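Notes from the 1:1 (GR / supervisor)

We went over the backlog. Supervisor wanted to see one worked example end to end before approving the batch request, so GR pasted a single chain during the call. The sequence is below; no edits were made to it. Supervisor asked that the structure be written out right there so they could see what the output format looks like.
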Amino acid sequence: MKIALFSGNYNYQADGANKALNRLVGYMEAQGHEMLVFSPTAKRPAFEPTGTLISVPSLPIPFRPEYRLARGLTPALKARIRDFAPDFFHLSAPDRLGHSALNFAETLGIPAVASFHTRFDTYLDYYKLGFLSSYARRLMAKFYARCAHVYVPSPSMANVLQDEGLIGDNLRFWGRGITREKFDPALRDMEWRRRIGIADDEIALAFVGRLVKEKGLDIYVALIKAALEAGLPVKPIVIGDGPERGWVEKNLPASIPTDLLLGHVSGAELARAYASADIFINPSRTETFGNVTLEAMASGLPALCLSATGSIDLIKDGHTGYIIEGTPIENWLEKIRQLCNQADQRKAMGLAAWQASQAYDWSAIFSELEAHYKEVLSIAKARRETALSA
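Structure output shown during the call:
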């Protein structure tokens, strides 16, 4: 198969969505398929891209300049695509590049599939643009209705999207996996904890992700404050960077050392940080899967997650962690107090989380997606044959 992949962010900023897309390209090329990737680029990308990346003209997004908005397909890019002669397009977002590519796929007479990574319409609420949400949902519904398949990462996300009419019968699943060789409870490093200011008898509450409003930073910071005020021996570990870093530094208690805000880390350093924490906190309500939660589980951490899409599929409440209903800090604090005071329960949940994470195998997940791809081509071929015989 020859596939043209279109992404609004393939590698210039690190996030769970583009890491999955890079893994996809690596897997498909290893199976003998060809992929060509089109995305905005930056002079200093977060990581090296997998496969062949073609730069798409772009501009910084207002209010979020670390991200870029593609201008769409230029004549030169269209010529490159024609030369490549793909069997179909894979679109990763209903942005300007996605719409431009979808229109061009229809011009070429080839199918397009889409993967659903982000609830862009819900993000608007965090930037005082909530009045545009209904308009955004209408655009998304029209976009996905034109795609042969739409790949959704979790059952709960699929239910929401179908209930809201954003995706119809063209929905398929494309889950996420974990690199077992990378994330491992055995990487726990007590000396490293001591160096950044966490005593052996303190409980490290880890947050991992972009430091942006929609990730629930207000809940995380409020939880740290409430736990300390309640006399619980907790310390935060904040892994990630972003435009709200200054807000986090300002609003965490003054007693918290800045060394505990690690910034963006990756590779072995990230795996060590996960394993060296004690409890994972995911207060985001905008997750579609929750890659960071799965990484924490594979690192042997019990997780406290807001009751939201993705999280409710990963965490078995009371067994591998807790699903917290609503945002009142009292709901979160109750479970933190319980896990702080019951080390045996904390360890048992961490072990159960690690065991549950082992079911998320990348090879099986990509093999299923490859079968979906072949289904699209088979249907397209049958339609062409029907049209020729008519």
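Supervisor's comment: The first helix runs from residue 16 to 30.
Batch request approved.
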